């Protein structure tokens, strides 16, 4: 079955009671054309063949002889990608869906190259973020397709409504955290399994406890996705960790994406380097085994 979708039109799209009810019941909303063609062209121009991405990306081993690449930064910054994360149609929509002020938790570019891109195991984002002492699941992610996302190149898969199951136990596996598969199979029997096929510019707004996965890229086309994660201001982590504590988010109008003249302001981004990632993952494994 297909995924129900809303369509974004500037000045017309609003989070209505129906929209919020869909998010709370299903754990997500799909918004078509969140980024228009001009915005998408500008953002892809910044990301494609970027020296910044090349400097800071790292590999994610999927445990099945494939790898994807990831580039992650903690602060939105004042450049083009920062305007996306700070825009009303991204951050402001998250505030309406979660019912309160949010701040930028991190942004990442996830890159699955043709024929080589790795899978991501069934997991909840809160399976990671719970360990960072965010006490409540008042968090979410906006997955924005940069390329066509299809079944053959590893589109997102979700278990609709699975966020209402609460947090499921996770354990490290390869370079990832995987949810308890016995529990996932139980949830599959109750929650519809959806393949979220998306066109460039489409966005999936999803709850941090929604179970999701994606397969390896076995197709001839890459699958790049731009993801912005947010935490509710009232859910400030108890302890400092790799992602920011509450930092007030200076939202900008949607027009700022096209108006921005700065392609990259790398010094403002607080990139998550390979070294930091290795240190975090070692510590994460210790905490997960307790």
TrEMBL record:
Cofactor dependency: Fe cation
Pfam families (UniProt xref): PhyH
Domain of life where this protein originates: Eukaryota
UniProt xrefs under PANTHER family: PHYTANOYL-COA DIOXYGENASE DOMAIN CONTAINING 1, PHYTANOYL-COA HYDROXYLASE
Name of the featured protein: Phytanoyl-CoA dioxygenase
Taxonomic lineage from the root: Eukaryota, Metazoa, Spiralia, Lophotrochozoa, Mollusca
